[in-house]
């Protein structure tokens, strides 16, 4: 027992005043409700009925708010606290008096998402203040609590057993259409309880992996079989998988996790579309119920814009998204009830799978609405009922799809048996028809025998006619013999001309002596050719020439002789500039053929290359009349082209023809190609040309191969291209490595 001795009435008065001052906070709060958290309340103490609020339009700081005198401005909430519709305050203060007698002291407090949320916890015993910023605009990494309720503002506060606290929450929001602000009893969870449920998420992840495998498998089956039902089922499982990702989408999306509800709604929309497409194929709605087939088509046409409208203009609104999902489920449910009347195993499988989905989805959605959410506590599993329904439905559909494949195989065998039976009947009918036709043929034979004598008379007349024909044949045979003799003489002459023409062309030894690696493809249209080529070396200059003379056959061969002779004469005279050689060749042909007097227009297209080697590179001078130069620089694969002049050699119509030299320097080991137009212009049996592009593509693709291999490829490709079609022009392709 403690005895206090009082010395005077003045001291008594001081003690009474001190006791009054000490008891003043207690008296000030005595009339306020205190939330007692005890074991009997389990994990859901009713915060809402003990919440006081103050609308702050002047921006008070916490030191002002916690003052005893100021707290009389707080009012006890009789209903949910919301911003007024006509005037929105700057901030809203919420206060709860707490007396914690519960052994577990870590609590998670939840406030729906707002721009600014600040939490102050005042321990009345120790006067210690805990401050936390849990604003909705914080990034994912800045948030203290990253589990599950990603849309709201959360924090974990430790309440010591036997301590009394005052919890202050300051809320501020810039949106005009802000949601209600409250603290719900069933939103307060013991943190340890939630952590024990991570096993369920891991199980869902396993199911997500299984669904991904099912998607890949069915998509592969679609690529092989080209049956649309596998494509629809693959994407149905894919978007169902996205729907199942919703409970832990925050781990993947992180700062973008605020859009996971919209992602959930969008994936659910696509899931509904592919569900309808799959269902129609699965139970063959078009075959059994054409009316619902049309209705479902119209629904899918309206589904996309209506769903997108809600998801775009009501983004973040969980109620709107739930309404969209509910609308899709209701239509799918009506559709499934309407088409489930088909009395077969596939329809029954379809019915059972859908019932699993709809029962689970119905209770999951009911539990998510505010009215039921505050009154029905189905625990953690309520958030996964829809996912469980999807998993069960897909597993049952997979069984049904396998059974459907089995039925299809049975139907195929049945059709094959019916076809064999039909073929057997047709064979029997055919044998009967053959017997009947045989009888008819015997009758016809008798009739033919009767007509035989008439035919004998006709044969005698024909015999006489035959003798006359034989006489005429002998006369024609004599003429043919004369023509064959003339043809033989002409062929002999042309063969001789061929030998002469090939004699003027460079020998293989000469070509190898000037260009170590080379190839020549020369395929005349007739026995002799209108194309020719020349190689020569004078001092340190190498000449490479390819020409296409007017015409082919004998006329072209004559022009090759003239061209070869004139070019050799010009080069021997010391002219080594390609443009000068072309210019002189043009006037020489005019003079030799007397083109001005005879109006003769024969001439040639020609390309001339003059090469001069240095230490590590080759200097090239090029000029041409209507023929290009193709080249591949060493180490490159792209074929480049230098186009010559568009003027031909010979003819009388242009007296002022000029040609220009093109200069080029390439490293040793580069490749040069000259050709006439016969290779690219050769058509196949469908009248399609080989084309220059295709020829250059072959050269580019085989640029790393030797010229010998390139020659074989180019020759094989052109022969295959013109197989079955007549050659339209002489073909000449020449390639060298410098």
Describe this structure in words.
- 51% of the residues lie in helices and 17% in strands.
- A hairpin with a 3-residue loop joins strand 14 (603-613) and strand 15.
- The chain has 20 helices and 21 strands.
- Helix 7 packs antiparallel against helix 9 (290-313), helix 10 (318-339) runs antiparallel to helix 11 and helix 13 (385-504) crosses helix 15 (553-572).
- The protein is flat and about 140 Å long.
- Strands 1, 2, 3, 4, 6, 7 and 9 form a seven-stranded mixed beta sheet that branches. Strands 12, 13, 14, 15, 18 and 19 form a six-stranded antiparallel beta sheet that branches.
- 27% of the residues are buried.
- By secondary structure, the protein is α+β, with helices and mostly antiparallel strands.
Descriptors for this entry?
disordered N terminus, alpha+beta, seven-stranded mixed β-sheet, flat, six-stranded antiparallel β-sheet, 20 helices, 17% strand, 738 residues
Taking pLDDT < 50 over at least 5 consecutive residues as the criterion, the unreliable ranges are: 1-30, 175-197, 370-380
Oligomeric state, counting identical vs distinct chains = single chain
**How large, in whole angstroms, is the Cα Rg?**
50 Å
Residue fraction in strands: 15-25%
Termini Cα gap = 121 Å
Count of alpha/pi helices: 20
Form type: flat
Total beta strand runs: 21
Tell me, rounded to a whole number, the average pLDDT. 77
Main β sheet profile = 7 strands, mixed
Structural class, from helix and strand content? alpha+beta
Fraction of residues in H or I helices = 40-55%
């Amino acid at each position: 027992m403690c005895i206090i001795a009082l010395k005077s009435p003045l001291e008594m008065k001081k003690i009474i005043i001190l006791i009054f001052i000490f008891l003043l906070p207690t008296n000030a709060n005595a009339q306020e409700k205190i939330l007692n958290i005890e074991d009997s309340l389990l994990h859901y103490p009713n915060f809402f009925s003990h919440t006081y609020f103050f609308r702050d339009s002047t921006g008070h700081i916490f030191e002002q708010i916690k003052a005893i005198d100021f707290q009389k401005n707080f009012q006890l909430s009789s209903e949910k606290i919301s911003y007024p519709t006509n005037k929105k305050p700057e901030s809203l203060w919420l206060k709860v008096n707490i007396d914690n007698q519960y052994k577990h002291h870590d609590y998670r407090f939840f406030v729906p998402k707002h721009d600014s949320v600040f939490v102050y916890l005042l321990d009345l015993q120790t006067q210690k203040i805990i401050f936390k910023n849990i604003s909705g605009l914080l990034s994912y990494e800045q948030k203290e609590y990253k589990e599950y309720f990603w849309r709201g503002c959360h924090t974990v506060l430790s309440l010591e057993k036997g301590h009394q606290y005052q919890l202050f929450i300051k809320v501020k929001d810039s949106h005009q259409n802000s949601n209600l602000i409250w603290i719900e009893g069933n939103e307060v969870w013991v943190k340890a309880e939630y952590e024990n449920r991570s096993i369920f998420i891991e199980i869902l992840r396993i199911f997500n992996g299984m669904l991904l495998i099912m998607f890949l498998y069915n998509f592969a089956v679609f690529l092989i079989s080209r049956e649309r039902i596998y494509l629809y089922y693959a994407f149905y499982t894919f978007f169902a998988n996205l729907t199942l990702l919703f409970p832990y989408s925050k781990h993947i999306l992180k700062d973008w996790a605020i859009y996971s509800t919209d992602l959930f709604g969008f994936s659910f929309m696509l899931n509904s579309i592919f569900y309808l497409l799959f269902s129609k194929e699965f139970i063959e709605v078009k075959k059994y119920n054409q009316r619902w087939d049309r209705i479902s088509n119209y629904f899918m046409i309206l589904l996309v814009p209506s769903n997108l409208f809600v998801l775009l203009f009501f983004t973040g609104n969980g109620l709107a998204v739930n309404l969209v999902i509910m609308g899709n489920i209701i239509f799918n449910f009506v559709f499934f009830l309407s088409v489930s009347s088909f009395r077969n195993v596939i329809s029954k499988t379809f019915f059972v799978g859908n019932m699993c989905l709809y029962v689970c989805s119905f209770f999951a959605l009911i539990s998510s609405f505010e009215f039921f959410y505050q009154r029905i506590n189905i625990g953690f599993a309520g958030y996964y009922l829809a996912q469980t329904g999807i998993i069960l439905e897909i597993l049952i559909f997979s069984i049904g799809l396998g059974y459907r494949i089995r039925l299809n195989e049975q139907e195929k065998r049945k059709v094959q048996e019916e076809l064999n039976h039909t073929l057997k009947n047709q064979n029997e009918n055919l044998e009967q028809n053959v017997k009947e036709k045989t009888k008819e043929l015997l009758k016809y034979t008798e009739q033919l025998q009767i007509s035989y004598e008439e035919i004998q008379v006709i044969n005698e007349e024909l015999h006489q006619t035959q003798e006359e024909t034989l006489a005429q044949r002998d006369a024609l045979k004599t003429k043919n013999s004369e023509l064959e003799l003339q043809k033989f003489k002409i062929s002999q002459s042309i063969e001789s001309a061929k030998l002469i023409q090939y004699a003027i062309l460079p020998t293989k030894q000469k070509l190898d002596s000037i260009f170590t690696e080379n190839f020549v493809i020369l395929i005349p249209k007739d026995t002799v050719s209108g194309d020719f080529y020349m190689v020569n070396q004078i001092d340190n200059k190498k000449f490479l020439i390819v020409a296409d003379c007017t015409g082919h056959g004998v006329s072209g061969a004559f022009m090759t002789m003239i061209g070869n002779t004139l070019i050799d004469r010009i080069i021997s005279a010391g002219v080594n500039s390609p443009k000068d050689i072309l210019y002189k060749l043009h006037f020489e042909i005019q003079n030799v053929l007397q083109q001005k007097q005879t109006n003769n227009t024969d001439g040639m297209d020609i390309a001339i290359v003059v090469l001069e080697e240095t230490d590590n590179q080759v200097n090239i001078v090029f000029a041409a009349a209507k023929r290009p130069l193709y080249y591949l620089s060493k180490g490159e694969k792209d074929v480049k082209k230098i186009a010559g002049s568009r003027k031909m050699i010979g003819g009388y119509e242009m007296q002022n023809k000029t040609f220009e030299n093109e200069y080029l320097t390439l490293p040793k080991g580069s490749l040069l190609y000259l050709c006439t137009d016969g290779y690219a212009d050769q058509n196949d049996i469908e009248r399609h040309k080989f084309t220059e592009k295709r020829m250059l593509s072959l050269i580019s693709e085989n640029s790393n191969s030797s010229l010998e291999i390139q020659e074989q490829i180019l020759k094989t490709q052109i022969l295959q291209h013109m197989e079955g079609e007549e050659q339209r022009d002489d073909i000449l392709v020449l390639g060298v490595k410098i």
